[in-house]
Model the fold of this input.
Amino acid sequence: MKPARTLFFTIIDRYILREIVVPSFMILSVFTFVLLMGKILQVMDLMVNKGIAFFDIARLTIYLIPGFLVFTVPISLLIAILIGVGRLSGDNEWTVLRMSGLGLVRLSRPIAIVAFAAFLLTLLTTLFLVPKGNLAARSLLFQIARNKAGIGINEKVFIDYFSDILLYADKIPVSGESLEGIFISDSHLGKTPNTIIARRASIIPDPDKNYITLRLEDGSTHTVDENFSAFRKADFHFYDIRLETGSSIGGGKATKSSTEMTFPELKKTAQNGKLKETEIREIMIELNKKLAIPLSCLIFPLLGIPLGMRAHRSVRARGFTIGLSLALIYYIFRLAGEALAESGQIAPFLGVWTPNIVFALTGALIFFSAAREQSLANLVSPRDKLIKS
Done:
């Protein structure tokens, strides 16, 4: 009898696993594709107008996927649990399993296995794949910019992406190897912007640093003092301007950004006594996120299982709606907490971990309440239920 009972449980585990794993992969694929669609127009512009090779575009897309998986894996798991458990409840299969003596905790074991696998995947992604992907993407963009100066810069459009620099290019050749008709407003040196006009410019990237150099040719600088009482003009044949492309942490030393650091690198950087308070907060927020986000994969099932047990005709639509709503609430709380932590109003740990704590306590309360109700229901035999009815 014991082997038959073990086989019976094994079949049930596989059956429930299939109900969760299959929709989880489908939803994960759809959500990841939808997020990638947001980059399609930019990718098409790089291929058609900038002349970037398809192989480079494919590499850049692969580097961006880990950043999407951090969000799509937990959400897909939650929706798949709601749909899978809802389908079992809607067909009364969940009730039959309960009446056979299996409690909610026992039936949740295969779901816990899927959740733990999702946790490991998300943890691996946040700790290693995302920082490696971000760093590789930046390196690739530098390599592309070395040959195509017009990447990210459109002709006859003012560009304010770079720190303290307003850039305008009248023409960008089809080859994308230079910029022509340059106008720049540079606010690096003082309160009054320094106006620079040049005939031509080329971009010189440095893959090891967090900035690129814009080398201007045949132009002039125009400077006015703060009181507008003096004007100075200087002509030049070559003039270099540093274009800051993102934040760097390390006391002014060009280095990786917080999103490009692995967990050990973040811990080591956080111990740097030369960092500013804002930089320390940024590091601590990113450090806590690398653990808090994967842990949501273990928290979401506590909500998904009891909510999915309620039978409903439109199982898929209901599960999809509830799952998206819960995920939206979770990420709104997380973004609000991060914003408060960045401004210094609350500690980074509290800002990042509060959504997990709230969802974990709420999920545990609902889950174990449902488990106790099932345990009491199993004490009543089917015969007794018929008599009472």
